[in-house]
Amino acid sequence: MLEALKPQPEDQILMLMDQFRADTRADKIDLGVGVYRNSQGVTPVMGAVKSAERQLWESQTTKGYTSLIGDPAFVDAMRDLVIGDAVDPARLAGAASVGGTGAIRLGLDLARLAAPQATVHIPDPSWPNHRAIVAAIGMPMKTFRYFDADENALDMPGMIADLGAVAAGDVVILHGCCHNPTGSDPTPAQWADIVAALSGTGAVVLVDLAYLGLGDGIEADAAATRMLLAGLPEVIVAVSCSKNFGLYRDRAGVVLVSGQSAAQAALVRANLATLNRLSYSFPADHGARLVEMILADAALRAEWTEELSEMRNRINALRRDLAEALRDAAGSDRFAHFGSQRGMFSRLGATPDEVRRLREDHAIYMVGDGRMNIAGLAKEDIPRLARAIAEVCG
Ligand code: PMP
């Protein structure tokens, strides 16, 4: 029966990683996969995580099962971090997930249980896995206007028109901060317009929050999610702890859902528990437990906050340096947006052929749509990168 399986398309980013590894040029530059690297080019285990792991090793007395929604203390700690007091906690239900991807999957599975024929609206462009997950679970899908590539700016009129026209019960995916792949987020005033456009439609928003704290700081980065929660009756928030806690492979994440009443929250919690039961019973606990310990302990939390600020400041300094180097190399301001965009990614606005030439002629690796992981860049590589971009795309 297995012969009936169809070959699957190779993941573009993983393929690029293999090509990069095989490239023997000493000065190659990897702007592909979305991981943070420090000034030594390493994706480190954060100090607060190491300390929490040490404490956990000493204090943990059992590895017995948690609950189907994971450790409730982790879910509550993430609720406090992400949502604060934006909604009455009685209206909220949550469950630990397998990373941010698992949280998105869980949120969409919940939506599908409630409304199997609901259309899922995805920003154009978006993280490619959004489209892939929606296709895999068989929900109808549409894109809405988000970014104007010619202007290198949000298409606000297009977005507001598209979002105002979504049907009741539909699901709208929004990136809470640090939009992947464009690095362009709405301003607080634009978010207010988005909330206004959605309110009254009866649509459910799914906020993908994979980069909390890596844009302008935790409070600023959580503001849009809180605004959506405060302004709309039903919101699903899919949170990843992969980047901001550096826990990539430990797969820590959480889905938080605000319903219209405490009774609805209880119903949501029971459905999340069942969905977990059907796929893996109990979500992984190790990474989630570390996050909970860090958030609950003043010293660990202060250490983590400091390390997160260092990561954010480094990314934003790299952004400014790259924008400046490109201004000098290209003799124009056409790349100035790299300095003001936020998060790990920006898009070069290069053609597929230019992306290929950067790779083949200059050993510079970026995803085919010109997405660059600025958080993976070494400061010393910026002048060479800027010269190559100016030469190929100038
Ligand atoms: N959403 C977005 C927009 C992302 O970029 C990522 C990570 N690349 C995720 C969700 C999921 O992250 P993870 O499953 O690794 O926690």
UniProtKB/TrEMBL annotation:
GO terms for molecular function: identical protein binding; L-aspartate:2-oxoglutarate aminotransferase activity; L-tyrosine-2-oxoglutarate transaminase activity; pyridoxal phosphate binding. Residues 301-328 form a coiled coil. SUPFAM superfamilies: PLP-dependent transferases. InterPro entries: Aminotransferase_I/II_large, Asp_trans, NHTrfase_class1_PyrdxlP-BS, PyrdxlP-dep_Trfase, PyrdxlP-dep_Trfase_major, PyrdxlP-dep_Trfase_small. Residues 27-389 form the Aminotransferase class I/classII large domain. Pfam families: Aminotran_1_2 (PF00155). PROSITE patterns: AA_TRANSFER_CLASS_1. Its cofactor is pyridoxal 5'-phosphate. GO terms for cellular component: cytosol. Homodimer. Belongs to the class-I pyridoxal-phosphate-dependent aminotransferase family. This is Aminotransferase. It comes from Primorskyibacter flagellatus.
